[in-house]
Every structure is written in C-alpha cells, then in structure tokens.
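Go through this chain.

——
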Amino acid sequence: MSDAAVAKRYAEALFQLGNEKGTMDQLAEEFHVLKTTFDENNELVPFLKHPRVNNEQKEQFINNVFQSFSADVVNLLHLLAERHRIDIVPSVIDHFIRLVNDAKGMEEATVYSIRELSQTEKERLEKTFAKRFGKQAIKITSVVDPSVIGGIKLRIGNTIYDGSIQGKLKRIERGILTAN
C-alpha cells in the first residue's frame, strides 16, 4: 500500500476519534505545531527511523519531546515510529487538516505578494475567495515573495490564481513565443 493511502487511513481514523471525543480543534492545533516541528528539524525523521535506535529509545524520545501534546497525537507518533512509518507524519497531518476543513466548510490558502498584506486586505481576499469556492471561510497565510514584482498570487489546494506582474509577463512571453 502506498504511503499516501496509509497516511489517509491514519488521518481518517484520527478524524473519527477526534469527532467522537470532541477534540477536533485541539488535534488540528497540535498537528499544525507538529508539522512545523517536522518541517524545521531535518534530523528528526532519520533519528526516529535509524535501525540502531530501538523502539524503547524512540518511545522515550517521543514522550520527552512531545510531552505537551495530547495522548492521541503521542500515540500516533509511537505507532508510526514502531511501524517504521514516521516519515508519513506530515502527510497524515495534511490529510487530517483537509478533513477538518471540509467538515467545517473551510479552506486554507497561501497568498504570495511583494509585501506583507494588511488585515483588511486579507479579510477582503478571504471573503472574495470564500464565495468563489462556495466555502464558509478561507484562512489565508501570507508569504512575502519578491519575485512576484507586484500584485498577488493565491494558491488554494491545487488551484493557483496568478494576478502578479510576474505571471502577466510570463503569459505575454508565452503568447509571443506561440505566435512565432
């Protein structure tokens, strides 16, 4: 079974568990922190997958490092480390967050712009794109990207809305190249 399919199954199980216990929001918050931890620490996965580190040492490490997390999250980490699948944690988190957002009628988006967006600009974008996608809300993360030159580029899932000057220049270039 592929890692994506396995990650999806773990995410669905956690979603059901969180739904039954009423801890969905807490799990989602903890998973955001956990994903950041896994993304920023390149040695974490290799350490937890290393054959010379036995399961007892992995369990103790997970208990010490993630002691502030809920038992469900810690148990997931124990289970994945024991089954040598710790590298799918970010994928499990992504699937879980997607399930939570779908249940709430939400979507997460990333906006790339030349400067940090003001709160008013974020709110306008959230309202506009929430209507366009038929969602109740959109949570925007702003990323400063100097290559945008001007305007914005917005990514929601696999869809990109490119209203940047860089994007317009590339479209003009493609038009000129295909005309020749």
